[in-house]
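User: For a reading group we're discussing how well predicted structures match intuition. Take non-specific serine/threonine protein kinase. Before you show the prediction, I'll give you the sequence so everyone sees exactly what went in.
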Amino acid sequence: MESRVEKVNKDFQDRTDVERGLQQVAGGAPHEAQLMEEYGREQAEYLRASRKRETTEDYEPLKILGQGAFGVVRLVRRRADGAVLALKQMPKKLMQNKNQRNRVLAERSALSSLDNAPGVVSLYSTFQDGDNLYLAMEYLPGGDFMSHLIRLDILTEDVTRFYIAELVQAVDEVHKRGYVHRDIKPDNIVLDRYGHLKLLDFGLCTVDPLAGATDSQKEKHNEKLQRGELQTPRHAKPGAPPVTPGRDGAADGPAKPQHPGRALLKSSVGTPQYMAPEVFRRSGYTASADLWSVGIILFECLYGGVPFSDPSNNPYTVGHKVVNWHKFLRLPHPSRPQVSGEAVSLMKGLLCEPEKRLSADAIRGHPFFKGLRWEKLKDMRPPIAPKLDAPGESGSASARKKGADLNLPQAGGSSNLRKDLDFVGYTYQREAEQKKPTVEKVVGSSGSTGAPPVTPKGSAAPPQQQQRGRH
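Assistant: Thanks. Here is the predicted 3D structure of non-specific serine/threonine protein kinase, as structure tokens, for the group to look at:
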């Protein structure tokens, strides 16, 4: 049985904040009585929606979308309204490991907080039974960005400009909501049916230690980084082979850069080729680390591979190169001299130390994006047009060859108190949460006039800042 202690406590605090806010707006009876009556109706509707418990019986499986070490993803149709979604199933016995448990809980927490964030995959619900965790998400049929990079190899600057702009917008939205993604890479970027970009896989997501910080606090943080006060070097594994610039013949030398291998990209601990130097140093890094990853993807789009690599895929060798990026980064890269000066300038502004790295606003104002109407990105026709299959078209034959079962487990599963306690607070329903009363909703529904709505203190604050400093 799933415990609801944490949710009950949070709902109680939310109710207290809303009631206090309504009292401030009303300014006394009878106005207050009218608002509280409306609030009571909305709160009752929210509680009814929250009590509903989803099970696998609520979904019709259509085909297998993918299978990995920690579960399977199916294309499903929600029986209640016919919505076609992607449903991830993860066995609890594989999630018992502390790191994996933290990842699934972090992804659920981040995606629920990022509801309706532009450029971020939508989470509809999470639920569980005795044996499995389930996560129902928006279905994005356009394919992951890495597949398109491998197919096209090199993108034109016009195509690159569009997708890097959309990526910057999505990453900046995540940062504005108080999070650092920490695993920005082409495999975690997926196109929707129209070709627009969306971020997914928030399992390594964490709270930005500078979320809500003043400019003065950010400046002091950067000063500490420059003085090395936040640094605990861990550049390479003892005994790792020495590395010299250009010796591997990949991105560091004149040879054409290569895309990282698929196996390495599916590492459960992040992907070294896209990680910022301050991450390898175990520095007290911030959201700026994600923008380094954007710079790596920009390089990969224009040169056909990543700037820091190793033929044997040794993560310690890659990490050494990233930490010593000033010795190994070649810009402009000789493999493609036709890359414009504006593109090279932008890469240099992103692939640098964090205190000198461009902010999202500075990126938007960079000459590489001259003439781009950022506010119209979502209205533009994307340069990559995905080839789509019909939602109900069966892909189960190939999936069965891999051992995946199209059918969903029967609702229920064996009860295990330990497994249930490990995933307290996992359940989430978007539709129920959208019914939760707020001051603005209640005032709007009641049609009341008077003082402007007052947002209860703390309701718009960034996520609780745990682990301030080092991640």
